[in-house]
Description:
Radius of gyration: 13 Å
Largest sheet: 8 strands, antiparallel
Oligomer: single chain
Distance between the termini: 23 Å
Strand content: over 45%
Mean pLDDT: 94
Order of helices and strands: EEEEEEEE
Amino acid sequence: xxxxKFSMADAVFERSPGQQGEVYAGNVIDQRQGGPIxxxxxxxxxxxxxxxxxxxxxxxxxxxxxxxxxxxxxxxxAGPGEVIYMPKGSSVTIRAHEAGAVTAYVTYPHWQEx
Length: 114
């Protein structure tokens, strides 16, 4: 596979699976390109939250806004330039704060196949 460069303009955003709120995901690399990981961008509306059972190892990089992730272990909050790691098997609530948020993510293996 050759080296790639992506920007948010390359992502095709779709409502996050199983969600009704203003939470969108847009993969730029996934199983269709043959690599072992999925890379993409996420957009969260103001004060939107989702409940997830994490089926893959998931790394979220906060690009804009603030995100809080609540799990059995407590709550972590991150802002621009910070990273949140959610291990496979975690049950979490991911919440954007009042300004919404933009994230980049990497999952292993592919979240769409899990």
